[in-house]
Specification:
Blueprint lengths: L4 E6 L2 E6 L2 E2 L8 H5 L6 E7 L10 E6 L9 E7 L11 E2 L15 E5 L6 E5 L8 E6 L1 H8 L2 E8 L5 E7 L9 E5 L5 E4 L13 E4 L4 E4 L5 H4 L5 H5 L6 E6 L5 E6 L7 E6 L7 E6 L4 E7 L5 E8 L3 E4 L5 E2 L3 E6 L5 E6 L4 E6 L7 E7 L11 E3 L5 E2 L18 E3 L5 E5 L4 H7 L1 H6 L2 E7 L6 E10 L9 E6 L12
Antiparallel strand pairs: 1-2, 2-3, 4-5, 4-35, 5-6, 7-8, 8-9, 9-10, 11-12, 12-13, 13-14, 15-16, 16-17, 17-18, 19-20, 20-21, 21-22, 23-24, 23-29, 25-26, 26-27, 27-28, 29-30, 31-32, 32-33, 33-34
Family: Belongs to the selenium-binding protein family.
InterPro entries: Se-bd
Keywords: Selenium
Length: about 500
């Protein structure tokens, strides 16, 4: 029987109409419909005490981002986890736009994997969005017993109602044990997603594109290496990744491994374009500071090429004579027009127009920290041998600490939020001031027409002034979903 489907606008959110009846699950019917969604008023931020010597558990902060609110740019609620030593890191949802066609699904639970302890928390954001509450804890012993997996990182919701998480190793930190964990809709451990014998070399992030029956995952490194801090010798010894893994979706068969070579060391965040018909995506390679574009070939194999290259900077008074930008996060606007990336060490955020997918054009750049900002000991060298430092403005009287790490874009593409903690051990190594003074969160105004970035002077969340002492701020999520959580099918 034929089914008539159209998309109608119902206020701010697009609604799928099937045979004349509204059929709406969580999220939006399309990426472009999401751009017309409501303006964000709250944002959830994972905050970390692990590794800081505070003797406190990590927590989820609710930040008011409504400029008309009296509590704008302030933490209005804190949900502490019941255990210490977790290292909350990334986060995801139990349901997102991949479940849009299922009216029984609801975006209710924020999924918080703990990178170090292995616990996975499900947080209820529906009862009171401003004050989320803990719903369930998936204990690491249960995960290890049933799957052998540990060090959970990225969480994505699936159209089936299941939740899938990348896990970076076994309980001893060996990369050989990494793979993908499946939880059911009530967060019970189901098992591994990938077929036996099809585990990746290393784990980190992943993104799926169902219309092309493909999932692609990236490769940070072995937990036994990165949890101790960054050591360049570990790269030479093969403890860090340089590959992308191409899987059948949803079959879980590893069908191709892309070796990115020396131009693609430490590939971290991976994103397809949001248009589900597109067979193109990008991955940020941290150590070599390249954005690599991957694409589907006519024979259904996948290829790759460097699309953006951030040149290293010659420096003085640092651990190496040259400093990479260290691209630690990037995202793509919902209309697939702009790509934003964060150079954690150099200290700048960049905006590129990617309408020409193979030849991105730099359209905006702003410095919000970095190792060679004015006032630090490290000096950058120009081509003529002269030295310089970057002038980074204060925000509300605060000197900006660390460098830009996680970023999150508003649905309409006009506001970019940024935090500055990468991973507590690496924060201590590269930005020790953050361990003492904590992290912060900024908001960048975006010109989404012609391009351009500027710091919003009205917005500054100082996680150095928290009631239990300075904390580190990492991943950010809107209650209604965003361009790094939602996947369309």
């Amino acid at each position: 029987m034929a089914t008539d489907i159209e998309v109608q606008q119902n206020g701010k959110e697009a609604v799928a109409v099937v045979n004349g009846c509204c059929k709406k699950g969580p999220g939006y019917a399309s990426p472009l419909a999401a751009m017309d969604g409501p303006k964000e008023s709250l944002i959830y931020v994972t905050c970390i005490y692990t590794g800081m010597g505070r003797g406190k558990p990590d927590y989820l902060a609710t930040v008011d981002v409504d400029p008309n609110s009296p509590s704008y740019s302030k933490v209005i609620h804190r949900l502490p986890m019941p255990y210490e030593g977790d290292e909350l890191h990334h986060s995801g949802w139990n349901s997102c736009s991949s479940c849009y066609g299922d009216p029984s699904a609801a975006r209710r639970y924020l999924v918080l994997p703990s990178l170090i302890s292995g616990r996975i928390y499900a947080v209820d954001t529906q009862k009171d969005p401003k004050a989320p509450s803990l719903y369930k804890v998936v204990q690491p012993d249960d995960v290890v017993k049933k799957t052998g997996l540990a060090f959970p990182h990225t969480a994505h919701c699936l159209a089936s109602g299941e939740i899938m998480l990348s896990c970076l190793g076994d309980k001893d930190g060996n990369a050989e044990g990494n793979g993908f964990l499946l939880l059911d809709s009530d967060f019970n451990v189901k098992g591994r997603w990938e077929k036996p014998g099809h585990g990746p070399l290393f784990g980190y992030d992943f993104w799926y594109q169902p219309r092309h029956n493909t999932m692609i995952s990236s490769t940070w490194g072995a937990p036994s290496a990165f949890t101790k801090g960054f050591n360049l010798q570990d790269v030479a010894d093969g403890h860090y990744g340089r590959h992308l893994h191409v899987y059948t979706w949803p079959g879980g068969e590893l069908k191709q491994t892309l070796d990115l070579g020396n131009t693609g060391l430490l590939p971290l965040e991976v994103r397809f374009l949001h248009n589900p018909s597109e067979a193109i995506g990008y991955v940020g390679c941290a150590l070599t500071s390249n954005m690599v574009r991957f694409f589907k070939n006519p024979d259904d194999s996948w290829g790759h090429e460097v699309a953006i290259s951030v040149k290293p900077v010659k420096v003085q008074n640092w651990i190496l004579p040259e400093m990479p930008g260290l691209i630690t996060d990037f995202l793509i606007s919902l209309d697939d027009r702009f790509l934003y990336l964060a150079n954690w060490l150099h200290g700048d955020i960049r905006q590129y127009n990617i309408e020409d997918r193979a030849n991105p054009k730099l359209t905006g750049q702003v410095f919000v920290g970095g190792v060679f900002q004015k006032g630090n000991a490290v000096l950058a060298e120009a081509e003529d041998g002269s030295t310089y430092q970057v002038d980074v403005p204060e925000v509300q009287g605060h000197r900006l600490r660390g460098g830009p790490q996680m970023i999150q874009l508003s649905l309409d593409g006009k506001r970019l939020y940024v935090t500055n903690s990468l991973f507590s051990t690496w924060d201590r190594q590269f930005y020790p001031e953050m361990i003492e003074k904590g992290g912060h969160m900024l908001q960048i105004d975006v010109d989404s027409e012609k391009g351009g970035l500027a710091i919003n002077p009205r917005f500054f969340v100082d996680f150095g002034a928290e009631p239990d002492g300075p904390s580190l701020a990492h991943e950010m999520r809107y209650p209604g979903g965003d361009c790094t959580s939602d996947i369309w099918i």
